[in-house]
Write a structure and sequence with these properties.
Blueprint lengths: L6 E4 L5 H12 L3 E6 L3 H13 L4 E5 L5 H15 L4 E4 L17 H29 L3 E5 L12 H21 L5 E7 L5 H6 L5 H13 L9 H13 L8 E4 L6
Parallel strand pairs: 1-2, 1-4, 2-3, 4-5, 5-6, 6-7
Helix pairs in contact: 1-2, 1-8, 3-4, 4-5
Length: 257
Amino acid sequence: MSYSNKTALITGASSGVGAAAALKLAKLGANVAINYNASQSGAEAVVEKINDHGGQAVALQGDVSQDKDCRRIVDQTIERFGGLDILINNAGTTTFVPHHDLEGLTEDIWHQTLGVNLMGAFFVTRAAAPYLRKAESGVVVMTSSIASVTANGSSIAYCASKAGMNSLTRTLAKTLGKDGIRVNAVLPGLIDGDWAFNTWGGGDAGQYDQLKAHFSEQTPLGHVVTPDDVADTILSFVTGSQHVTGQLLTLDGGFTL
């Protein structure tokens, strides 16, 4: 299936899942807007890879926790490509705070975590909705987490933000469905990549290998998902049935069974 007449906006796409999804969509022929907040070099590297393979991409800076930035990012996407068909709300943040350390979960951490992970997903979707309606078959995919449905995660705030994203997915699916816009979410487990290495592994290779081994041993399929795995699942919502919406798809190899 060709997506040569389609445009995708991906938040938090300078690395990891967002970058992988951008490259896969570009290979299908889609134009891709690469949003980043801090890593300009990472975003430009993704754009360069897409351009080298004959695709069309642009890097757009913006903090998704700020509504004005979200509206600007969408406006710049429209100015560059003329429309918007696919939105992937992938930007996310966390601060590692052990769940028992209630005082350690400061007001600033709460605001930052909810601002990026939950409010940002709403802000971008709201800004994109008028253009997704024009597309007549618009699709939104959220990158959530199994932390949203378990009692485990990098912090209580992170778990709560992703649980909120799940609810946002379903309420937006119901609200926007009449306009032909589908909204779904992917809930990955541990994603084998730089974020997990630095956050959970503390940048220590030995500690991270132990963490991966633990997840693998507790997972029926014996596999820790990768950014490519998550990107493939995101694309399955984009390219699959036009009658799937409001779904929360767990992607953890069976870890939470």
